[in-house]
Specification:
Elements: H1 12-22, E1 31-33, H2 35-41, E2 44-48, H3 59-68, H4 72-77, E3 79-82, H5 86-98, E4 102-106, H6 112-120, E5 124-127, H7 132-146, E6 149-150, H8 157-173, E7 179-183, H9 188-200, E8 205-211, H10 216-222, H11 244-253, E9 256-260, H12 262-276, H13 286-293, H14 295-298, E10 302-306, H15 314-327, E11 331-339, H16 344-355, E12 358-365, E13 375-383, H17 387-399, E14 403-406
Pfam family, one: ACT
Keywords: Lyase, Pyridoxal phosphate
Catalytic activity: L-serine = pyruvate + NH4(+)
């Protein structure tokens, strides 16, 4: 078992060696400036598209670097990992390529699609426990009992060095960067990128980003206690306790660690679809979320961030996109109190038509409301070309003597 407190962090030479080791087996993903996001934020914004890896996440870099350094005897024993997401698929995919038996322990609540994808890459999946911590404990138990080699998702020098190859590529493609903003879960990605970037460009600013609900690394670095836990769109960085080795590295190298709220993560995912036409999971959009949450901090700078993963459930993505339309004011749910008489619904529809608003769904609530028995609540879900059109239809409804309440997301 790895003992992080006694292990030395990887160096820039280790990262360069990792880059040579994985060359040709992992995509060198595009590093592109986004003109539109640059205009919105007021900075020169560069995006590293790691969501374009074969398994749609940067995790392949560290996993492959680790697997390639195993001895023939270790390869024959097989490897084990605990993961419900990107790490599982990375280890499974490259393990199969290299002929290494792979066992992945996942929590029992892991979505079926993630289980089947991991099995599709040739891994044996063991479902155990309600949470990741349970699965991790089971993986450690099997490591001891069966002699498997444990592949840690972040707290391992080989994993960190593999992730660090991203920092080298970013500065090769955009050498004028002033700042790099990196999502943090356990800290492996940020540790590797920070190690590479600080060695290649010592004056560069390095900012880590965590979901507001999971500030584990910020607590570790700052020495403060904060509540940790909850449902986040950025489940890929929803880590309660960061690594010991990664915490040591980031205490030394990170200039700051910021926390982003769920609203900004959702907004970032939606903007990347709308502007860049690219699908990014919540964790992968955390860097952009930080830029959107505090644009003044980055104004006038050359800023790079990593779209570190693109594995998001399609139904969840659809929900995020629709919620973003609602926040923009282009979609609304209107709760309209009306007399339950012929023509009331027609009047509502006419108001919508005159305002250029499209009705998506209509619901009647005659029983469960506090109105008189002759009245009803009509809920209308509608969409429009802009927020002004929604405001217009509300104004028309009120002038027609309807009482209107607008549902809010926040």
């Amino acid at each position: 078992m790895l003992q992080p407190s006694s292990v030395q962090p990887p160096t820039i030479d280790d990262i360069r060696a990792a880059a040579e080791r994985i060359r040709g087996s992992v995509n060198r993903t595009p590093m592109l400036q986004s003109r539109t996001l640059s205009e919105i934020i007021g900075a020169e914004v560069w995006l590293k598209f790691e969501n374009l890896q074969f398994t749609a996440a940067y995790k392949e870099r560290g996993a492959l670097n680790k697997l390639l350094q195993l001895t023939p005897e270790e390869r024959a024993r097989g490897v084990i990992a605990a993961s419900a997401g990107n790490h599982a698929q990375a280890v499974a995919f490259h393990g199969k390529r290299l002929g290494i038996p792979v066992i992945i322990v996942m929590p029992t609540a892991t979505p079926t699609i993630k289980v089947t994808q991991t099995e599709g890459h040739g891994a044996k999946v063991v479902l155990y426990g309600a949470m990741f911590d349970d699965a991790d404990a089971k993986a450690r138990e099997l490591e001891r009992e069966e002699g498997y080699v444990f592949v840690h998702p972040f707290d391992d020098p080989a994993i960190i060095a593999g992730a660090g190859t991203l920092g080298v590529e970013m500065l090769e493609d955009a050498p004028e960067l002033d700042t790099i903003v990196v999502p943090i879960g356990g800290g492996g990605l940020m540790s590797g990128v920070a190690t590479a970037a600080r060695a290649l460009k010592p004056e560069i600013e390095l900012i880590g980003v965590e979901a507001e609900l999971y500030p584990g690394m910020k607590c570790a670095v700052d020495g403060h206690e904060r509540p940790v836990g909850g449902d986040t769109l950025a489940e890929g960085i929803a880590v309660k306790e960061p690594g010991q080795l990664t915490s040591r590295i980031l205490k030394e190298l990170a200039d700051d660690i910021v926390l982003v709220p769920e609203r900004e993560i959702e907004r970032a995912v939606a903007m990347l679809v709308g502007i860049e036409k690219t699908v990014v999971e919540g964790a992968g959009a955390a860097g952009l979320a930080a830029l959107l949450a505090d644009p003044e901090r980055y104004r006038g700078k050359k800023v790079g961030t990593i779209l570190c993963g693109g594995n998001i459930d399609t139904h969840l993505l659809a929900t995020v996109l629709v919620r973003d339309l609602a926040r923009q004011g282009r979609m609304a749910r209107l709760r309209i109190a009306a007399q339950d008489r012929p023509g009331a619904l027609a009047s509502i529809a006419t108001c919508c038509q005159e305002a250029g608003v499209n009705i998506i769904e209509i619901y009647h609530s005659r029983i469960f409301n506090r109105l008189p028995a002759k009245d009803t609540i009509i809920e209308v879900e509608c969409e429009a070309r802009d927020a002004e059109a929604i405001d217009d239809v509300i104004d028309r409804l009120e002038k027609a003597k309807f009482r209107v309440e607008r549902a809010s997301l926040d």
